Task: structure prediction
Amino acid sequence: MRIFAISDLHLDYAANHEWLQQLPLHEYNDDVLMLAGDVSDRLTLLDEAFKALTKRFATVLYVPGNHDLWINRERVHSSFEKLDAVAAAAGEHGVRTDIFRDADLAIVPLLGWYDYSFGEADDYLKAAWADFRACRWPDYDDVALTRYFTDRNPSSSSPSLQDAKQIITFSHFLPRIDLMPERIPHKHRKIYPVLGTTVLDAQLRALGSCMHIYGHSHVNRRVTIDGVTYINNAFGYPAEAHFTTRQLTQVL
Result:
């Protein structure tokens, strides 16, 4: 059994959709895939992705990304309703959103959002960031929403984690801002406040994770910080092909 990871498929783009359909049918039949969010904001494409990937992998593990919870192109009233629809689609195809165990190995999905622990959102970001228009979270601001998601994440006392000797965690959102490399130009750092939350790093370390897979930033990277290896393997937009690998990466 091998473990693969990918995020940010963004299947709304024809080139990305074509890549999914051309994945070999029999190369990964004994393997596990961690799918770290942002498949599509369209439920039809999300459903298609789940169907295609579960045909190819023994197990598909998934956490939703922010794009997956946009509602502006769906007939739903809130992003909470969209979240339920996404969960239903995963369940229909046997995509796992819970803890996966194989002998001593445990893989733990971690939900999240952004709570401005990476910086405050200025007027530019509030106008430019699509989530502020494409998502609708009645009665929740982003700080409360982050708490809503992270409070639902497993703790080390979960029965599914007992006796696990190797723990891998994965999320869509970044658990720490220093995962962004120094080479990022200052003008692009304006989006840092909406990249994630420090709560996730506290949670994954409390779980004893040795490796964490994340998405969202579209900046592919592998780096070890204080004993945890962090890996981002975003497929990304077609225009980003010069700096994303646009392929699966084997992490174990």
In short: The domain at 3-250 is CATH 3.60.21 (Purple Acid Phosphatase; chain A, domain 2). The first strand starts at residue 3 and ends at 6. The two ends are 9 Å apart (CA to CA). Strands lie at 3-6, 32-35, 59-62, 100-102, 105-109, 166-170, 211-214, 221-225, 228-232, 249-250.
